[in-house]
Amino acid sequence: xxxxxxxxFGIVGLLxxxxxxxxxxxxxxxxxxxxxxxxxxxxxVRSKDYSMRLYIKDGEWxxxxxxxxxxxxxxxxxxxxxxxxxxxxxxxxxxxxxxxLTDEKAVTVTVKKGDSVLRTLVIGKAGGRSNHAFxxxxxxxxxxxxxxxxxxxxxxxTESIREKRIFDLKGKEIESFxxxxxxxxxxxxxxxxxxxKGTEEATAVTSWYCRGYDNRPxxxxxxxxxxxxxxxxxxxxxxxxxxxxxxxxLYASAVIxxxxxxxxxxxxxxKEKEFNYxxxxxxxxxxxxxxxQTGKLIIxxxxxxxxx
Length: 308
Known about the structure:
- 16% of the residues lie in helices and 37% in strands.
- By secondary structure, the protein is of the alpha+beta class.
- The chain has two domains: 28-161, no CATH class; 166-305, no CATH class.
- The strands form three sheets. It has a nine-stranded antiparallel beta sheet, covered by helices on one side.
């Protein structure tokens, strides 16, 4: 092989290497996104057929028409945007339609603190890898592949992101409670009982009792099984356009005293799907409960709660 031929091959190889290097996207092409320390106070999500606004007012997260929102859900959305992990630069061309990053198909998430925009994220279709999506960040024209994010995560229904907790009472903090159902009312209270003779216990033991059966301590496990539904009491859903006179007859009720405050619950016979309607002074909205909750309010025989 002649010297000129070798030189020609070398030039061709060098040109090929240059072209290859020009088409490889190195880590330096991935932007270093700034993070923030102070929590955001507004998250806005919009797409062609969807709009949601989460915002903090008086220290509480609200969603859209000022419904209380689940703080954990709002925090999770903020964290996903703040901690987004960009893995690859996909394209520097504005081929947005190919990656569903147009206004017609993309989901745009804007996170704010006061009037300052902390991040704007445009989310397109899912990437070729599991749990990846094509995105644009903070107005940059480039298209990136991001890990751990999907646009469907940012379009929850208002119902699903509302705060479902009605109240939260821990068993040890409950001082007394009353349950009414089936024409019977049972009132429960705590009392310190002297230790049984012949035991090694030297101090009085606090036990639950039911009024009218004051000489029979109740089984702690049985009482805790009832109180568990209040720790916390969570709604299944919030029916729309339902009025108080449409809930049916009173099915069961409870009043729980904790910290000197009475927390009430009323459950009705009316149902939405298989869930009973319910109300509480701790909520401005009619809500529903499942039978795994309402069943705890039905006491068939008080003796079932007594220590054996």
